[in-house]
Design goal:
Blueprint (H helix, E strand, L loop, with lengths): L28 E2 L2 E2 L11 H15 L5 E4 L6 H4 L2 E7 L17 E7 L2 E7 L10 H4 L1 H9 L3 E10 L9 E9 H4 L26 H13 L6 E8 L8 H9 L4 E3 L3 H9 L3 E11 L14 H30 L1
Parallel strand pairs: 3-6, 3-7, 7-11, 8-9, 9-10
Antiparallel strand pairs: 1-2, 4-5, 5-6, 7-10, 8-11
Helix pairs in contact: 1-4, 6-9
The protein binds ligand LQZ7MJT6.
């Protein structure tokens, strides 16, 4: 049996992603066992998600209402949670592990501005070798824990020439490049306990929350650093070519990254309200040049995120306060 995490789901059974064994042989029959392709939706059945959610709710003694996913270098969004109960990903049954620098690999449950919240300090990316359904599985865990609002954050390259490094782009739409290529976290049989077979995605990004965030940005005196725009997720881990960036710009994309979209699709499928933003950590070149500056790198992404942690934390905390006060 193949034990690689990329192709084993809960229970350790093979989940049918293309896989090579230790000797580099193509999987199809590994150690004599036949590998049967498994649709993404069967990677984590409802009952397994329920078990994970029970583990978190019982372990924390809380039913969080707001879920936060911390982007690269934005783990401090979870550090401001009060009275935190911390769950290392390795200790949560059937949870994947974080493999990317800047993604600590912990789930933090507690209170923030009076609201009960749970935050992923570390997300899962397609390029790590995880199928999309596994990348966004924690969103379903959040849902079954009681979460109504998803706050998804990411580090992204700015394609819109008006964006500067350190700016925040509130996402109001996305272009799902992995979807264009036929990949979706919802692939396979649909479990209606999560949501409908064919979810609509217009109005995925909650307009009220976007408007409130703009107001908060003004109150913080950073309105000139706040934009509203379109994000696109590519598979990574390589950054984009100039031709790809030009094409994305022509499609109306303002910022590009390697995450978030599949999480938003999963959240909207199970009817969560979504707020998402990109921290612009680098400017993407859309013209050819020999300048080394044009080359994105993860160290720069992390360094910029560090300098903007405070503003991002304040924006998130103030918005959560508004949600909490409105529902009190
Ligand atoms: O998890 P996010 O989307 O914030 O991380 C971005 C995309 C890659 O994981 C990494 C590239 O620097 O940052």
């Amino acid at each position: 049996m193949c034990s690689r995490d990329c192709c084993s789901g809960p229970g350790g059974s093979n989940r049918g992603n293309t896989c090579t064994d230790k000797k580099g042989g193509k999987a199809g029959s590994l150690n004599g066992e036949k590998i049967i392709p498994t649709p993404q939706s069967l990677l984590y059945p409802y009952e397994v998600i329920e078990e994970i959610a029970d583990f978190i709710v019982k372990g924390s003694g809380m039913r969080p209402k707001i879920g936060i996913i911390c982007g690269s270098g934005l783990g401090s969004l979870a550090d401001i949670i009060q009275d935190p109960k911390i769950f290392e990903y390795e200790k949560i049954p059937n949870f994947p592990v974080s493999t990317v620098e800047g993604h600590a690999g912990r789930l933090v449950v507690g209170t923030l501005e009076g609201a009960t919240v749970m935050a992923m300090q570390g997300r899962f990316h397609f390029y790590e070798g995880y199928p999309l359904a596994k990348c966004s599985m924690p969103v379903r865990v959040m849902k079954l824990c009681g979460v109504e609002y998803l706050f998804a954050t990411n580090a992204a390259g700015g394609i819109n020439p008006r964006f500067a490094v350190g700016d925040i782009m509130l996402m109001h739409d996305h272009v799902n490049m992995l979807g264009f290529a036929g990949n979706s976290p919802l692939q396979g049989p649909n479990d209606p306990r999560f949501g409908p077979r064919f979810p609509a995605l217009v109005n995925s990004y909650n307009k009220d929350l976007i408007n409130k965030a703009i107001e908060i940005g003004k109150a913080m005196g950073i309105e000139s650093n706040i934009h509203v725009g379109v994000y696109s997720c590519l598979g990574g881990p390589n950054y984009e070519t100039i031709a790809e960036l030009k094409a994305l710009r022509m499609m109306g994309v303002d910022a590009v990254g390697m995450s978030t979209v599949h999480e938003v699709i999963t959240a909207r499928h199970c009817d969560m309200k979504v707020f998402a933003f990109s921290l612009i950590t680098n400017k993407c070149a859309t013209e050819y040049s020999d300048k080394k500056d044009d080359e994105a790198n993860h160290e720069e992404v992390m360094a910029v995120a560090k300098t903007r942690q405070k503003a991002c934390c304040e924006l998130v905390a103030r918005l959560i306060r508004e949600i909490h006060l409105a529902s009190a």
